[in-house]
Design a protein that fits this description.
By secondary structure, the chain is an alpha/beta fold. It contains five helices and four strands, in the order ααβαββααβ.
Length: 144
């Protein structure tokens, strides 16, 4: 699939609203990134993008990146050290399986929102909101 077609089918407003709502219940941070490039390994690229976006610099190491490479028909979800310590590999496997099913059915926005909401629930469980309510990272969908 062409990245442009994927992007055109996404409802950015609904995704940003889901991120904003999820982050109201946690100090954790969630970002969505869509690459227009062909990638060989989405997980490797997601980890590199995670670092390039400075997501490893949150106070509690509690950021999650939901990464899509539609031209390559790949996606990945990366959590920082603080998140991964609390959820383990099973959470990521279950999440990506659910996302994969939605993506196969061309439910692109729904797949993104599913990931945002599940990550948000996990973050809320382990990282309560801070009294200052600060948002460390932007909520907008980004891409290259």
């Amino acid at each position: 699939m062409r990245a442009k077609a994927f992007l055109n089918q996404l409802d950015d407003q609904r995704i940003v609203a889901a991120i904003t709502e999820s982050e109201r219940h946690t100090s954790g941070q969630i970002r969505v990134y869509i690459s227009r490039k062909d990638v060989e390994d989405a997980l490797t690229r997601a980890k590199a993008r995670f670092m390039a976006l400075g997501m490893d610099k949150t106070r509690d190491r509690n950021a999650v990146l939901i990464y899509f490479a539609p031209r390559s028909h790949q996606f990945a979800v990366v959590g920082d050290a603080g998140v991964h310590e609390r959820c383990g590999d099973d959470f990521w496997r279950q999440l990506t399986a659910a996302m994969g099913a939605a993506l196969k059915n061309r439910q692109f926005t729904e797949a993104v929102i599913l990931a945002v909401e599940r990550c948000g629930a996990l973050l809320a469980e382990h990282f309560p909101p801070r009294p200052d309510g600060s948002n460390e990272l932007p909520n907008e969908v980004e891409g290259d």
